[in-house]
Every structure is written in structure tokens, then in C-alpha cells.
Amino acid sequence: MKTGNMILVSNRLPTTIEPGPDGPMLKPSSGGLVTALKPVFKARKGYWIGWLGEGYGEEMDELLAGSATDSACQLVTVTLTPGERRGFYTGFSNEIVWPLFHDLQERCNFDPTYWKAYVSVNRKFADAAARVADHGSIVWVHDYHLMLVGEFLRGHGVRSRMGFFLHIPFPPVDIFEKLPWRTQILRALFRFDVIGFQTPRDERNFLGCVRRFLPDVDFQRNDGEVRAVSDGRETLIRNFPIGIDFDEFNTHAQQPEVAARIAEIREDMRGRQIILGVDRLDYTKGLPERLRAFQHLFATCKSLRRQVSLVQIVVPSRENIPKYRELKLETETFISQINGQYGDPGWMPIHYIHRSLERPELIALYSAADIALITPIKDGMNLVAKEFCASQVEERGVLILSEFAGSAEQLNNGAILVNPYDIGAVADALHAAYRMDQGERTQRMRKLRRRVRNADVFRWCDEFCSYLENGYGRAARAA
After folding, report:
1. Quick check: 56 pLDDT over 60?
2. Cβ atoms 472, 194 nearer than 8 A
3. How many CB atoms lie within 10 A of CB 381?
4. Could you tell me whether strands 233-239 and 225-230 are parallel, antiparallel, or unpaired per DSSP bridges?
5. How far apart are CA 412 and CA 429, in angstroms?
6. What is the pLDDT of residues 78-91, one digit of tens each?
7. Average pLDDT of 95-114?
8. CB-count burial class (<10 Å; 0-12, 13-18, 19+) for 313
9. What average pLDDT does this structure show over 380-385?
10. Residue 58 half-sphere exposure, CB side, CA atoms within 13 Å?
């Protein structure tokens, strides 16, 4: 970077508070955003602004400062009251934007008090960023929680280059139009210099919404790039598919302790093929649909009984929200029914793990798996698919991937793409993956690993920052 500090603004900091034997302690946060950006900030100087979590107090400041010693990034905490969290996070972010942007408008609760909380908290985040910004800074705001931050920063007189990246899908016009505050959000986004999306589809949906609801915005196309002019400000609109740290997963998968754990997992499965699912607890991940497909597989293909087992990892998430508790109960009930219907004392169809796994254990499972079953009904990208490929150093696994995951755009050349609503087709894909010979498995996985390696998280970050810093990519094209 040729200019000043990077200021990254996201809902959560890369650390969180957990109880310890000697009092509160800080541990790395989970989640795709943190996973993607932590390795980037090891090499960049700047600030990371976000909420630390429940239980934060001034006594945590010393711990917070110490947590950044392995990085050039200084952590800056935004403090939220319980009421703000309910209205901003549980309310507007997760009862309005999250379901709406995943095409599930029937789950939305358009409570106007949620909007007031969203505006108030976005202003808080902007205030924190303004305190550390200078003219040479680059401000990079992340995700659907903070779509108004750019507008408030400009209101503070901040003239820094500013970018926004949306990690979740952007909906089409007929879905987005149901949002009562659609115009305010679109206007606020145009206070950024660069707006980034995961896929070309998300970019097209956004442009369609702007044309419908902001007819005064002018568009210019040049070399496949779209620039929009709103209120005299020019904004680049572009898709930047996010990646992972390929080398980290690839290297860890070859460590002796991980190799030993891989052998243990395969031994425990007694020669059966391992089907792996790794998902955060969320209704967008298609867990009930996946389990129905798995049940259908045994009902229609009896020869696969005792020949395969599904290892389903569900990472706890938002379990204070009633709909998520209901999803957990539905998932666990369905798993019990399938195990009771088809299992026997020597074999369980589904091995269910409801917790986060340490990185070595997760990589061992990725490496040991014969098939990865990743079938969200809608997903911005889905980094699990890429982590699986990066961990497959033996190139023996098959990726079955929902065509509605953002990663399907990049991984369609080696994955088996499925419609997660078509349980028969998903069951057929599982059967085909089970029967696939090693030559085809290797050929497919080699293509997938090459694609994930060549589009890693560092390239994603460098590309976005290059466009932001160099004036919408003009300098990058000239080079």
C-alpha cells in the first residue's frame, strides 16, 4: 500500500471474550470474515474496528492490546448496549437483511424500531472510524451490518478512499423492493468509492436495483467495469470473489500429527466412505434438505447402507434467536430418525458434531473425507468448499456443491453441482460420487485445487485494495 493506514470496519473483531480459569480471556473469533482477513492483516499496518462481544469492560483493554501483538493491526472496540444489540444485530441485521438477501422474505420482520437501531449503531461505527482516519487512510467496510457507515463517515468530513464489500448475496429487484428502507441504503452505499460483491450475479442484481430505485444514477462501462455517478461522486461496482489462505490448509494437511489423525478417522470408519458436511447453524445452509436427500439415498439405494457414513458438523450460531433454536431441534430430530431407521449396532448413518472444531481436527476431517456435501440453499461464497479442496493433498475427494453457493461460479469445472431442493438429484450425485473411480476423482480435485490456489485470500485483498487505492483500477490496467 502506497498511502496511509488501512482501517477495516466489521461487525465483529477478530477476537472474542470467553471465560477462563483466571477470569475473562480473549480467543480468536470464528466466522468466514475473520478467517479470511486475519492472515491479510499480519502483513498490513492499520486498525480493525468492531464489537468485541458480551462482557466487554475497560478491564479488557490491556488484554485487547496484547491480542494484536502478532499483527500490525490495532483493535478498536465499539461498545453496544443490550438494546442496541437486539435492535441492530438480532433485529435489523438478522431478522430483515439476512433473510431478505437470501431470498427468504417470508422470514423477515420489518419492525421500524429495528431501522432506528441500525442507523444509530452504524453511526457509532462511523464515529470510531473517523477518530483514527486521516486523509491518507484507506477505509474498508465489511458486510450487511454496516451499509450506512460510508454515509456517516462522509458526514464527518472524512475524505479517505473508502470501499465496501458485501459477503452475502445481493437479491434481485423483486426481492429487494420489499425492503422499506431500500432507497436510503442504496444512497448510502454510493458514498463509497468501490462497492464489491462476491459474484457476477450479485453485481447484476445490485445494478438492477439501482436502475429501478435510483433512476438519477448514471452508469458508464469501460473494459467490462461499471462506474456509477451519483451526486457528483464516481463509484466502481465490481465482483471480487473471496478466497482462503490455501497454503495454510495445504501445509497443515501434510503435518505428521494431522496425517496420524487422518489415519485414525479412516480406521474408525472401518473402510466406509466418509461424506462430510460442515456448516454454521443457519437456515440458509440447507440442512433439512440435505438430510432428506441422505435419507432418500438409503431408501432408493439399499446397497449403500453400511458403505457410507455422513459426518455432519454444525457450528453453533445465533442460538439466542428462536428460529435458530427451532432449526437445531429440527436438525437433531431428523438425524435421530435417520439413525434409528437405518442404523445398527455396528454402523451409524450419521455422526453428528455440534461444536466448533480446532483447526487441525477440521483439516484432518477435510483430508480424510471421500465426499464433501455442501448444499446451501443460498450462500454468498461458502469458504468451506474451498477449505475442503485446499486440504485434499491426496486429491482423492469429490466435491458436491450447491449451484446456489457463490463458490459454484469458480468451482463448477471440478465439482458436481446440484440443486439442493431436488433431493433425488442430490442422492444421485452422492451415488455417482461414491462410484467415481480414482482417476476421475484426481482429475476433478486437481482442477479445483488449482483454482482455489490461484484465487486465494491475498489476491482478493490485493485486488480490492488496488482498485480502491489506484482509482478504480486505472493504474492496475496501465501496468
Report:
1. no
2. yes
3. 25
4. antiparallel
5. 14
6. 999 999 999 999 99
7. 97
8. buried
9. 96
10. 0
| pLDDT at 16 (0 to 100) | 73
Residue for cell digits 450425485? 429
| H-run or E-run covering 451 | helix 438-454
Closest by CA position to 373, among listed 359, 362, 388: 388
Non-local (6+) Cβ contacts of 307 within 8 A are: 272, 273, 434
List, as own/partner pairs, every contact residues 417-420 make where C-beta atoms lie below 8 angstroms and the sequence separation is at least 24, other chains included.
418/375, 420/286, 420/289, 420/290, 420/293, 420/375, 420/376, 420/377
246-454 to CATH, choices 3.40.50.720, 3.30.420.130, 3.30.1490.20, 3.40.50.2000: 3.40.50.2000
Rounded Cα distance, 269 and 261, in Å: 13
CA-closest candidate to residue 259, choices 359, 368, 353, 186:
368
Q: Which three cell numbers stand for residue 429?
A: 450425485
Q: Give the Cα-Cα-Cα angle 196, 373, 293 (nearest 5 degrees).
A: 120
> Which CATH code, of 3.40.30.10, 3.40.50.2000, 3.40.50.12230, 1.10.10.60, is assigned to 6-242+458-478?
3.40.50.2000
Cβ contacts of 185 within 8 Å, gap of 6 or more = 147, 148, 179
The string of pLDDT tens digits covering residues 293-306 is: 999 999 999 999 99
Beta strands across the sheet bearing 218-222: 73-77, 46-51, 6-12, 138-142, 161-165, 194-197, 233-239, 225-230, 218-222
Burial 340-357 (b: 16+ CB within 10 A, else e): eebbeeebebbbbeeeee
Q: Cα 198 vs. chain centroid, distance in angstroms? A: 10
For the beta sheet containing 371-374, the strands, ordered from the edge strand earlier in sequence to the opposite edge, are 350-353, 308-315, 273-280, 371-374, 398-402, 416-418
The neighbour count for residue 194, using CB atoms within 10 Å, is 23
Percent of the chain exceeding pLDDT 70 equals 89
Q: Note the Cα 221 to chain centre separation in Å.
A: 29
d(CA 411, CA 396): 16
| Mean pLDDT across the chain | 90
Go through 202-240 and write b for each residue having 16 or more CB atoms within 10 A of its CB, e for each that does not: bbebbbbbbeebbeebeeeeeeeebebebeeeebbbbbb
